[in-house]
Amino acid sequence: MRRRASKLAPARRNGLFRALRIGPALALAILASVVIWVTHRPDLQYRGAPPVVERAPRVAHRPAPTPDISELLKHADELALQPRQRMTLERLVNQWEPESAERSRDMQAAAQAFSTNMRDAQQRGRGGIVEIQRSAAPVSAMTTEWLGRKAYFWQQGLAELTPEQRERATKLTAEQLHPSRAEGSGEGS
Question: Residue 127 belongs to what domain range?
Answer without folding.
Answer: 70-188
